[in-house]
Write a structure and sequence with these properties.
Layout lengths: L2 H42 L6 E3 L4 E3 L1 E7 L2 H10 L1 H11 L4 H15 L4 E7 L2 H12 L2 H6 L2 E3 L7 E2 L5 E9 L3 E9 H15 L8 H57 L9 H15 L21 H7 L3 H18 L8 H24 L4 H16 L6 H4 L1 H18 L5 H12 L4 H7 L8 H10 L5 H13 L3
Parallel strand pairs: 4-8
Antiparallel strand pairs: 1-2, 3-4, 5-7, 6-7, 7-8
Length: 485
């Protein structure tokens, strides 16, 4: 018997044991992996923009499926791959049949990397990135369920056609190798087609290279289509939210405007506070399980003093929008929880109010930058609010959601381009105060004018990296000139 015949006999023995014994075992392990991943994704999907809504259901943007490598596919791969040939050689040199059987059953699942294939199929490519971030943030859960990813940090990889793919090698229960792919529906279907046409097509064709070039071009076109579908989905989601908020705006206006007009003796437009009112209304509805309707407004809390929050009270008392926002919140809170508001409880109620305002403002930024930045963003909003109380900003401290988003963008750019410049954080605070229309003169005189800062370098970075608007930069230069800097 020659060498080739021995290898053929060995591969036939391996694949027979695989087909009769191992495939069912691997299927059971694949089901366990899928069950874990499904539960993990379902639990965290909302935090990573992986759920959508139609008129009836909440719909996930993903589905999970698996495959176990077929007998014929395993035979071909073992002849083609180095690790397969090494395993065949080990079998051919083992004279004991029982040992060969044990080797195949125990060692093969760890020697061949993709006997188990898991695929997470998403609606669009953006979902693939979000699932990768979700898995990246779930190291504790992965460890608890005995799932280890070997090459997680070098994703996505580049396919031969130049397009990126999440193709992650994993080990389950320290015994079973598996391959995890994360693909959009378009690219999954396209990949299957390309796989059949080229991956295992070893026939020689004169025009194969030109056909592959065309296929690559089609892949790039599909990527554009995928991006277009993502934009359509965003528009649809946005329209759903906009429609819901339009309904709530009308409902709240009908409920609250007559009560406000009764108190003020004038028809007062509450459009400026409608966004936080909608946020509060939804929050209280979730808390109580039903709508919180108001038949009257109690304004008595406005007469309660608070030494702890004196800066806030001064700001509130000169802004009717803030007076009404706090009053409506306190009335909803009182009705939802049945609590009275008096001198003894007012500080605690204001603290709850401030926290809800921070959550509202943070949510507007999180929608742009992702749920994984939630803690950092909420800390940023609290820090900005505290800073602004000291430097005379107006009602946008509580109502300027877009301004907070712009301030956060600017803060990130400061951190990217100026982290090595001494005292640059003090300049960042100046521009944040300016964003909100605060007292920059007071801040400049109390801070920037008193510390050592390389303003020439600061101005260069501000200008070349477009960290702030030209108007803000010109105003800052003028301020420097006033101080002879």
């Amino acid at each position: 018997m020659d060498t080739i015949q021995k290898k053929v006999m060995a591969i036939n023995e391996i694949t027979e044991i695989y087909d009769t014994i191992l495939r069912d075992l691997l299927r059971a392990q694949a089901d366990k992996i899928i069950a874990f991943l499904q539960a993990l994704l379902d639990e965290k999907a909302a935090d990573y923009h992986l759920k959508g809504h139609n008129s009836v259901y909440t719909v996930p943007h993903y589905a999970i499926k698996s495959r176990i490598k077929s007998k014929d596919s395993l035979k071909e791969k073992m002849f083609r791959k180095k690790e397969g040939m090494l395993f065949i050689n080990a079998i051919t040199t083992c004279p004991d049949e029982e040992k060969r059987y044990a080797m195949v059953k125990s060692d093969l699942p760890l020697k061949i990397g993709d006997l188990i294939g898991i695929k997470i199929i998403t609606e669009v490519n953006e979902d693939c990135d979000n699932i990768y971030r979700l898995l990246s943030d779930s190291s504790i859960e992965l460890e608890q369920h005995d799932v280890v990813f070997k090459d997680f940090n070098i994703q996505p990889k580049r396919m031969k056609n130049g397009l990126p793919i999440y193709n992650i090698k994993g080990v389950f229960a320290q015994k079973y190798n598996f391959e995890l792919q994360i693909k959009s529906e378009l690219f999954s279907a396209w990949g299957d087609m390309e796989h059949k046409m080229f991956y295992k097509d070893y026939s020689i064709k004169l025009d194969k290279s030109s056909v592959q070039a065309s296929m690559k071009h089609i892949g790039l076109l599909l990527r554009e289509v995928d991006n277009f579908l993502f934009e359509l989905r965003k528009l649809n989601d946005k329209n759903d939210v906009m429609y819901e908020n339009m309904i709530l705006t009308e409902r709240l206006d009908k409920m609250l405007s007559p009560l406000i007009e009764e108190k003020l003796q004038v028809n007062y437009n509450i459009v400026n506070i409608m966004a936080p009112l909608i946020f509060f209304y939804k929050d209280f509805k979730n808390l109580c399980g039903h709508d919180i309707l108001l038949n009257s407004l109690d304004f008595n809390a406005l007469s309660i003093a608070s030494r702890r929050y004196d800066n806030y009270l001064k700001l509130r008392n000169r802004e009717m929008d803030l007076i009404l926002l706090e009053t409506i919140y306190c009335n909803w809170l009182s009705k939802a929880e049945g609590i009275g508001i008096d001198h003894s409880s007012y500080n605690a109620i204001l603290l709850r109010y401030f926290k809800k305002i921070c959550i509202y403002l943070s949510s507007c930024i999180i929608n742009r930058y992702g749920q994984d930045k939630k803690t950092v963003i909420m800390r940023f909003v609290r820090w900005v609010m505290k800073l602004l109380f000291s430097y005379g900003a107006g009602s946008n401290v509580f109502l300027g959601a877009e301004t907070y988003a712009e301030a956060y963008r600017m803060s990130l750019k400061f951190d990217d381009f100026m982290q090595d410049i001494e005292n640059s954080s003090a300049v960042k605070q100046y521009f944040i105060i300016d964003c909100f229309g605060g007292d920059t003169e007071k801040y400049f005189s109390q801070s920037l004018a008193l510390i050592d800062i390389n303003f020439r370098e600061i101005l260069y970075e501000l200008d070349i990296n477009r960290i702030v608007s030209k108007e803000m930069l010109d105003k800052f230069k003028w301020r420097l000139s006033c101080y002879g800097i």
